[in-house]
Specification:
Elements (H helix, E strand, L loop, with lengths): L4 H20 L19 H11 L4 H15 L3 E2 L9 H4 L4 H4 L1 H22 L5 H22 L2 E2 L5 H5 L6 E2 L1 H18 L18 H18 L5 H14 L9 E3 L9 H8 L4 E2 L1 H9 L5 H4 E2 L15 H7 L11 E2 L10 E4 L1 H13 L7 H14 L11 H10 L7 H12 L4 H11 L28 H4 L1 H11 L14
Antiparallel strand pairs: 1-5, 2-3, 4-8, 6-7
Helix pairs in contact: 1-2, 2-6, 2-7, 3-6, 3-12, 3-20, 6-7, 7-9, 7-10, 9-10, 10-11, 10-16, 16-17, 16-19, 17-19, 19-20
Organism: Hwangdonia seohaensis
Keywords: Lipoprotein, Signal
Pfam family, one: SusD-like_2
Amino acid sequence: MKINKISIKIAYFFVAIMAFSITSCADELAELNENPNAIEDLPYGLQLTEVQLDAPGGRYEMRRVALGWGLSSIQQLADVNIATSLLPGDKYIDFIDYSYALYDRYFLQECKEVVDFVARTAEDPEAVNYNAMGRILKVMSFHKVTDMYGDIPYSEAGQGFLSNNWFPAYDRQQDIYLDMLSELEAAAAQLSGSAENPGSQDVMYGGDITQWRKLAYSMMLRLGLRLSKVDPAASEAWVKKAITGGVMTSVNDVAKVEHEIGGVTSPIGDSFEADKFMRLSDTFVSWMEDRNDPRLDILSWVESGGPHQGLPNGLDPTTLASSGPAGGDLLDYSQVNPALVLQDSPSMFITYAEVEFMLAEAAVRGWHTGDAETHYNNGVRAAMANWGFYGVAAPSTGDVDAYLAANPYDAGNALEVIGEQFWAATFLNPWEGFSNWRRTGYPVLTPVNYPGNATGGTIARRMKYPIVEFSVNGDNVNAAIANQGPNEYTTRIWWDKN
């Protein structure tokens, strides 16, 4: 469902005017100490729409962190720039203002809205569905941030705008994860088919309670598996609880937000509109070529009209000209198909394909009675079909059958083949692709070692906190560093253990 955010802002404006008009004539002196900008009776449906449209973020953090570090670090994108470092993760260059862009944007904008929405709806017994949906959305947004930085403000986040607490404490990631998993469990139980329903103001599922419950348990499955290295017992318990609760069962359950030109545009589409230098990595293109993957013809577009050719990571203009496999002209290297990165392309949060691959992993670990090979096959089919959401023709059933015949489930290397397919399935979902690669280590990637890089020639494990935090919230950010480790790209966050 596509909604123009301008209309939402106009609605906010008129609600504010109405609130002011109604109250301005009555007991004006008693209101002098109240916040004149507060709108206590803002319709829940309107705020739910706002929270959902905010959830994909903007070009600022998508361009700098998700694409700039995420997709390039896991070698799905590449570029040759040095001075501008359009993709610092391509060469591990320390462009710290790129690193903290998500932190900046989230705590200055998205955070306060979702925190306020959950708090407002919790106080109203008639708003149980709004509150449950808000709790799920809050987990979806906070887990993206903690997965990039580790310890972050959580229990006190957003309170600068809501209660004038501008110096929030940093919560330990293990505590954040425990609370997020508990929130998903509570929200799933809270959803009610008999309570007030947001209907069309829910731009993700149109008020479908069953799909929201599947989303909650699918997110629980994702977060539960995040713990697989650091706390296997807890990981198993949450994975089993998610599967018992009921996760996504078809591609129609995918959690996404639609965009439209002139309204809320796609942050990925906006990023590619602004940057014409990004190319598909040779690692990614070669992986698809080696498997005769029908997705290659969907994902790759070569402007010169030549064959698909990925750009190796870690090259600059000089080394491209001397050692680039297609020479020194960027027009001979694969760009992302422009049809997939339009301003009205959808933003994906979690897909059925991801769920099936997670179920396959759970079966391999003995945490699920389902058949790992069946889940693997379902995941591949769903990952292929998923491109239909972008307005392009997905691979045919025959093409997918042939692909699975040539690239079958391999029980002897189960976690590796599942991890590689998950990596391919999360292209253009960079937050999850980067996080799951750090957890699983698949596919096995060869790092680059560009001169002067900031990681010692290893792939980044986290993003850096903003420099300004050390001057305005120094005690709290330094406490996080004391708990977690140095504010470096190579410091592993809590769940990312060797």
